[in-house]
Amino acid sequence: MEIWVDADACPLVIKEILYRAAERTKTPTTFVANHFLQVAKSKYIKFMQVSSGFDVADSEIVKRITSDDLVITADIPLAAEVIEKGALALNPRGELYTESNIRARLNMRDFMDTLRSSGIQTGGVSAISQSDRQDFANNLDKLLAKKSKA
Protein backbone atom coordinates (compact mmCIF):
# COMPACT_ATOMS: atom_id res chain seq x y z
CA MET A 1 0.00 0.00 0.00
CA GLU A 2 1.08 3.52 -0.79
CA ILE A 3 -0.51 6.73 0.38
CA TRP A 4 -1.01 9.53 -2.14
CA VAL A 5 -1.89 12.98 -0.83
CA ASP A 6 -3.67 15.66 -2.83
CA ALA A 7 -1.46 18.15 -1.05
CA ASP A 8 -2.43 21.52 -2.54
CA ALA A 9 -5.31 22.01 -0.11
CA CYS A 10 -4.42 19.46 2.57
CA PRO A 11 -4.38 21.12 6.02
CA LEU A 12 -1.00 21.23 7.78
CA VAL A 13 -2.31 19.33 10.81
CA ILE A 14 -3.37 16.46 8.52
CA LYS A 15 0.02 16.47 6.79
CA GLU A 16 1.68 16.15 10.21
CA ILE A 17 -0.52 13.16 11.09
CA LEU A 18 0.45 11.59 7.75
CA TYR A 19 4.19 12.21 8.38
CA ARG A 20 3.98 10.36 11.70
CA ALA A 21 1.87 7.53 10.27
CA ALA A 22 4.20 7.01 7.29
CA GLU A 23 7.22 6.81 9.58
CA ARG A 24 5.52 4.60 12.19
CA THR A 25 4.10 2.12 9.67
CA LYS A 26 6.89 2.43 7.08
CA THR A 27 4.30 3.27 4.43
CA PRO A 28 5.50 5.06 1.29
CA THR A 29 3.66 8.39 1.17
CA THR A 30 3.77 10.85 -1.70
CA PHE A 31 2.53 14.43 -1.45
CA VAL A 32 1.48 15.75 -4.88
CA ALA A 33 1.07 19.50 -5.45
CA ASN A 34 1.50 22.09 -8.14
CA HIS A 35 3.51 24.36 -5.86
CA PHE A 36 6.63 23.58 -3.87
CA LEU A 37 5.94 21.90 -0.56
CA GLN A 38 8.40 21.23 2.23
CA VAL A 39 7.78 17.75 3.58
CA ALA A 40 9.24 15.90 6.55
CA LYS A 41 12.58 14.23 5.93
CA SER A 42 12.00 10.50 5.80
CA LYS A 43 12.80 7.66 3.46
CA TYR A 44 9.04 6.95 3.41
CA ILE A 45 7.93 10.47 2.43
CA LYS A 46 8.28 12.02 -1.02
CA PHE A 47 7.11 15.18 -2.68
CA MET A 48 6.07 15.33 -6.33
CA GLN A 49 5.61 18.74 -7.88
CA VAL A 50 3.43 18.86 -10.98
CA SER A 51 2.86 21.73 -13.38
CA SER A 52 0.20 24.31 -12.61
CA GLY A 53 -3.19 23.82 -14.13
CA PHE A 54 -6.69 22.62 -13.42
CA ASP A 55 -6.66 19.11 -11.90
CA VAL A 56 -3.04 18.39 -12.92
CA ALA A 57 -2.22 16.97 -9.48
CA ASP A 58 -5.44 14.94 -9.49
CA SER A 59 -4.63 13.47 -12.90
CA GLU A 60 -1.13 12.53 -11.78
CA ILE A 61 -2.47 10.75 -8.70
CA VAL A 62 -5.08 8.83 -10.70
CA LYS A 63 -2.45 7.82 -13.25
CA ARG A 64 -0.12 6.41 -10.58
CA ILE A 65 -2.39 4.71 -8.03
CA THR A 66 -3.06 1.01 -7.83
CA SER A 67 -6.01 -0.76 -6.22
CA ASP A 68 -3.98 -1.28 -3.03
CA ASP A 69 -3.41 2.45 -2.49
CA LEU A 70 -4.99 5.09 -0.29
CA VAL A 71 -5.58 8.66 -1.47
CA ILE A 72 -6.07 11.54 0.94
CA THR A 73 -8.26 14.22 -0.63
CA ALA A 74 -11.16 16.55 -0.03
CA ASP A 75 -11.73 16.70 -3.80
CA ILE A 76 -14.90 14.71 -4.43
CA PRO A 77 -14.41 14.18 -8.20
CA LEU A 78 -10.88 12.90 -7.49
CA ALA A 79 -12.26 10.58 -4.80
CA ALA A 80 -14.78 9.23 -7.33
CA GLU A 81 -11.97 8.44 -9.81
CA VAL A 82 -9.93 6.79 -7.05
CA ILE A 83 -12.86 4.56 -6.08
CA GLU A 84 -13.45 3.72 -9.74
CA LYS A 85 -9.87 2.44 -9.94
CA GLY A 86 -10.47 0.26 -6.87
CA ALA A 87 -8.34 2.27 -4.44
CA LEU A 88 -9.41 3.88 -1.17
CA ALA A 89 -10.12 7.60 -0.65
CA LEU A 90 -10.17 9.29 2.77
CA ASN A 91 -10.92 12.95 3.30
CA PRO A 92 -9.04 15.16 5.80
CA ARG A 93 -12.02 15.04 8.17
CA GLY A 94 -11.77 11.27 8.44
CA GLU A 95 -14.63 10.27 6.17
CA LEU A 96 -13.96 7.28 3.93
CA TYR A 97 -15.46 7.76 0.50
CA THR A 98 -17.14 4.58 -0.74
CA GLU A 99 -19.05 3.38 -3.78
CA SER A 100 -22.24 3.82 -1.75
CA ASN A 101 -21.66 7.43 -0.66
CA ILE A 102 -19.64 9.02 -3.47
CA ARG A 103 -22.59 9.55 -5.84
CA ALA A 104 -24.50 11.52 -3.18
CA ARG A 105 -21.37 13.60 -2.47
CA LEU A 106 -20.95 14.38 -6.19
CA ASN A 107 -24.63 15.36 -6.49
CA MET A 108 -24.40 17.67 -3.47
CA ARG A 109 -21.19 19.22 -4.79
CA ASP A 110 -22.82 19.91 -8.15
CA PHE A 111 -25.92 21.35 -6.47
CA MET A 112 -23.83 23.71 -4.32
CA ASP A 113 -21.81 24.72 -7.37
CA THR A 114 -25.06 25.58 -9.19
CA LEU A 115 -26.20 27.69 -6.24
CA ARG A 116 -22.88 29.56 -6.13
CA SER A 117 -22.90 30.19 -9.87
CA SER A 118 -26.39 31.71 -9.58
CA GLY A 119 -25.11 34.18 -6.98
CA ILE A 120 -26.31 32.49 -3.81
CA GLN A 121 -23.80 32.66 -0.96
CA THR A 122 -23.33 29.14 0.38
CA GLY A 123 -20.60 29.87 2.91
CA GLY A 124 -17.27 28.16 3.07
CA VAL A 125 -15.97 24.96 4.54
CA SER A 126 -15.53 25.07 8.30
CA ALA A 127 -12.07 24.74 9.81
CA ILE A 128 -10.77 21.29 10.74
CA SER A 129 -11.86 20.64 14.31
CA GLN A 130 -10.13 18.58 16.97
CA SER A 131 -12.81 15.94 16.46
CA ASP A 132 -12.11 15.92 12.69
CA ARG A 133 -8.38 15.44 13.37
CA GLN A 134 -9.11 12.56 15.70
CA ASP A 135 -11.51 10.95 13.21
CA PHE A 136 -8.89 11.25 10.47
CA ALA A 137 -6.11 9.78 12.61
CA ASN A 138 -8.31 6.91 13.81
CA ASN A 139 -9.59 5.99 10.34
CA LEU A 140 -6.10 6.28 8.85
CA ASP A 141 -4.78 3.92 11.53
CA LYS A 142 -7.61 1.43 10.85
CA LEU A 143 -6.92 1.46 7.11
CA LEU A 144 -3.17 1.05 7.59
CA ALA A 145 -3.68 -1.80 10.07
CA LYS A 146 -6.12 -3.55 7.73
CA LYS A 147 -3.74 -3.24 4.77
CA SER A 148 -0.75 -4.49 6.76
CA LYS A 149 -2.66 -7.69 7.63
CA ALA A 150 -3.57 -8.32 3.99
From TrEMBL:
Pfam families xrefs: DUF188
Organism superkingdom: Bacteria
Alphabetical list of InterPro entries matching this protein: UPF0178 (IPR003791)
CDD domains: PIN_YqxD-like (cd18720)
Family according to the record: Belongs to the UPF0178 family.
HAMAP family in alphabetical order: UPF0178 (MF_00489)
Protein name: UPF0178 protein GV64_13415
Lineage: Bacteria, Pseudomonadati, Pseudomonadota, Gammaproteobacteria, Oceanospirillales
